[in-house]
Design goal:
The protein is of the alpha+beta class. It is built from three helices and seven strands, in the order αβββββββαα.
Length: about 200
């Protein structure tokens, strides 16, 4: 069995992989970044372009960005065929045309459907993917999360604290409460050998 690489070797390998990934991403006709909740794309274009010159289509699984009558910058059917990596909320996703020092830029904001998942690329068939295992997420507050996600995170935090103190988790507490109620309803039964599992 081969020996594990030393920390220095692992660091060097990670740096080489990061450099290769950055070079590949630079070949794309757009720049993109993401948070756990959304994806932002920037496409540099000439300063004389107006929004009426653009053909932008956003759907749950597709994105097309082009100058009318020309090949697209991003088209999940033509540029790098394949749908978006993951689904988006099309009604919550937007695009704008902004003036920047180098001319203009098409800024696209995609609102992820699954806000607990990183994307490795914008489209599924792009030849250049990122290693999502290397992403270091930004710190977030519980208040930033939607109600369902917040409830799930709070339950996980409570259960973790309970385990650390050697106490039952919320699910174990529910089972114990159910057994206690059943015992109260059936005092004639012997529960001395009952096991919780």
């Amino acid at each position: 069995m081969p020996a594990s690489p030393s920390p220095e070797e692992r660091e060097k390998k990670d740096a080489e992989a990061k450099k290769k990934q950055d070079e590949e991403q630079a070949r794309l006709p757009y720049k993109w970044n993401q948070s756990i909740q959304d994806v932002d794309i920037a496409i540099p274009i000439a300063g004389n372009i107006k929004s009426r010159d653009l053909d932008v289509v956003l759907t749950k699984t597709k994105l097309k960005v082009a100058l009318k009558g020309q090949d697209p910058f991003i088209d999940v059917r033509a540029h790098y065929p394949g749908p978006l990596t993951k689904e988006i909320h099309a009604d919550e996703s937007t695009w704008t045309l902004e003036t920047v020092p180098s001319g203009k830029e098409i800024s696209i904001h995609l609102d992820k459907v699954n806000k607990m998942e990183w994307w490795d690329a914008v489209t599924t068939n792009t030849p250049y993917k990122i290693d999502t295992s290397k992403i270091v997420p930004e710190n977030s507050k519980l208040g930033d999360l939607d109600g369902e996600t917040r409830g799930m995170v709070e339950k996980m935090m409570y259960d973790q604290r309970q385990k650390e103190m050697g106490k039952p988790t919320s699910d174990e507490e529910k089972k114990m409460d159910m057994l206690k109620k059943f015992q109260e309803q059936h005092p004639e039964m012997d529960f001395s050998n009952a096991k919780m599992g």
